[in-house]
Amino acid sequence: MKRIAGSLLALTLVLAACGTAPSAQSTPLAPQAVSGGNIDTWRRQVIYLTLPDRFANGNTANDNLGQPYCFDPNWPLKFHGGDLAGLRSKLSYIKGMGATTLWTTPVYAQVPEVNPGTPGASCGYHGYWPNFRNPGDLAVEPKLGTGSDLGGLITDLHGNGMKYMMDMVANHAGYGASVAQTHPSWFHGNCTGDDVTCPLAGLPDFRQEDGTVANYLTTLSKNWTSAYAIDAIRMDTAKHVPLGYWQGSWVPGVLAARPNTFLLAEAFLTGGASQLKPFYDAGFDSTFNFPLRNALVSSFARAGSLDAVAGSVQDYVGTLGLDRALLTVNLLDNHDVPRFLNEPGYGVAEDEIRRRYHLGLGALFTLPGIPQLYYGNEIGMYGGADPDNRRDMPSWAWTSTGRGGTYSGFLPNPGLTYNLVQKLAGIRTNNPALWKGSYAELWRPNGGTNVFAFYRGYTDSTAASRIVVVFNNNAASASVSLNIGANTGISSADRSSLASRTFDDQAGQGAPATVTSSGGSLTVSLPAKTFAIYKAR
Ligand code: ABC
């Protein structure tokens, strides 16, 4: 539908055509694993994902410990020397960008070299090939450090007011793991497909339907949960395990070991929020928002219509409800997909790639849900499919001087992106509307001007936090009039409060510094390929 700017009737018709954005109801839902004040604590987090092996080498003495033939900094499929001590030494860098929770990939002791002597020779540098044994043990991968290194990292995180998210595996063991040799009946046979009984990539696939196996796995997770003061668990391959195991065994087990632990399910599903909902119903507090990631790639990285993002947000807020949507973990990329910066593809000018990336970051920090950064996001690191998306962190990253340079494999002047991430994390953390506020769509292209705008609002007896966020994905400037007054997705109190109100841009990405609404309508004009975060005075 063509936009007829200026006519309220047309605008009302268009808004009607958009369908009323989901009014952000906060109807009570099934109790989450975290409760009380912890829910707000987690809504306010900014998660930072690292592979300890690829981040910083704090102790070269452990580089070659553990499995032989697994340390080779020049081979992408083996260990490169990063470790827990290295991570511990860089907490000021991680905290400095505004990240508040550190998620490390698993630290379990890993299996021996896989496919030795072949071009595919590889080791569990990522931590997802645990060498489980029975009874389950707490062995930390020696190349990453010791149990005291892990405990010390967690203590230092807590000393910095930060949290630790432990990555766990209950779907499988590593290739050739001890427990697979001593208990072959604990594992499914070989089959292909997405069924929960089929091994993922040939990994020994546990038979959770067997009570003995379920008890072994839950005890294993409980032991790790008890042994370390963790704040959260990221559960790997959740969609490859029967939901009944999570709900009936694993969730109650780990919460008995450590109440109020935040439980995040990795269910790599992109068909929409209806596919994610069962994991919340099974007792997880959160899932990764892969459907939104696909939409962010389509809309921003590939310069498509913002209808994709608008539709995805309407889907997950509408399907999950606001309470669960606010705990969903949103991402631009991670260790399993090409980096967002690689998604525009060949032939796109680097300045354009940066504009698209910064738009994506603006969405990541203002949409409902917990933002997750993947190490290197903050310094514009490129990377293709696994394992290219797991390159080592560069040592120049740690200082602002170092980040001022130009390096192969990174956006020029990485400090520009680092400073934007730092600013966006601060804006989000300091404005309750963005981490616990309602959501109401104000504008989507609907086939017309490629602009997306929404309202976030939170008020209580102590404060009022009201924000309008606008993205212009056009290659030219664009102007839209947002009909706040008639938007039923916004509370009536807020609508009247915002009818005539001045807003100040917090993002500083080129939009007019202030805009003022009149008669319930807010006209916003944005330069090409930029966004604004307008905070009501
Ligand atoms: C690597 C190679 C494999 C090779 C293997 C030997 O080594 O990538 O090609 O066969 C770990 C390592 C990986 C390793 C695997 C297997 O183990 O990190 O390097 O593979 O050995 C989690 C972790 C992940 C980890 C594992 C295993 C699980 O995050 O790092 O991998 O513990 C599936 C799972 C998901 C899993 C992921 C790797 O594979 O569901 O839990 N991640 C489609 C499917 C998804 C699938 C995804 C990736 O592909 O729907 O189920 O995830 O394979 C979107 C589409 C999606 C599509 C994505 C990729 O693109 O809409 O449908 O997802 O646009």
From TrEMBL:
The keyword Signal applies. Keywords: Glycosidase, Hydrolase, Metal-binding, Signal. One of its GO terms (biological process) is carbohydrate metabolic process. It holds the Pfam family Alpha-amylase. SMART domains: Aamy. Its cofactor is Ca(2+). InterPro entries: A-amylase/branching_C, GH, GH13_cat_dom, Glyco_hydro_b. Residues 49-428 form the Glycosyl hydrolase family 13 catalytic domain. Residues 1-26 form the signal peptide. One of its GO terms (molecular function) is metal ion binding. This is Glycosidase. It comes from Deinococcus aerius. The lineage of its organism: Bacteria, Thermotogati, Deinococcota, Deinococci, Deinococcales.
